[in-house]
Amino acid sequence: MTPERVEEEPLELDWLQLHNEMNRAAGVETTKEKLFRKIKENPFVPIGCLATTMALCYGLVSFKRGDTKMSQYMMRSRVAAQGFTVVALVAGLGLTAMKNP
């Protein structure tokens, strides 16, 4: 009987672990950290997105119920919330550009 050579095979995800370690050593932020940093920098954009989503959902519910007056009101509110979001985004970009010349 000949003894079989058992070679240790590296784990399939070793490259992923190495990538994460290198990013941490280089100070690269994770996606979650970047999301929270962006929300802190400009909190009005997520607020506008939530307001837009809520107006859209409630408007669709009202439409399904047959309450056309409320449905129209909520669709107009959605447009206003979208406008608020765009203005907040542009203002945030402007402030960031002024902060980092």
From TrEMBL:
Which PROSITE patterns would you find in this protein's record?
A: HIG1
Please list every transmembrane segment annotated in the UniProt record, as residue ranges.
Answer: 44-63, 79-98
> What UniProt keywords apply to this chain's record, in alphabetical order?
Membrane, Transmembrane, Transmembrane helix
Protein's name in the database: HIG1 domain family member 2A, mitochondrial
Q: Which is an annotated Pfam family here?
A: HIG_1_N
The UniProt gene name for this protein comes to LOC108557531
- In the record, which residues are listed under signal peptide? none
Q: Does the keyword Membrane apply?
A: yes
The organism encoding this protein is Nicrophorus vespilloides (Boreal carrion beetle)
The record's annotation in InterPro entries points to: Hypoxia_induced_domain, RCF1
- Subcellular localization(s) per the UniProt record: Mitochondrion membrane
Q: Respond yes or no to whether keyword Secreted is given for this record.
A: no
Gene3D superfamilies per the UniProt record, alphabetical: 6.10.140.1320
Task: Report domain HIG1 positions.
Answer: 16-101
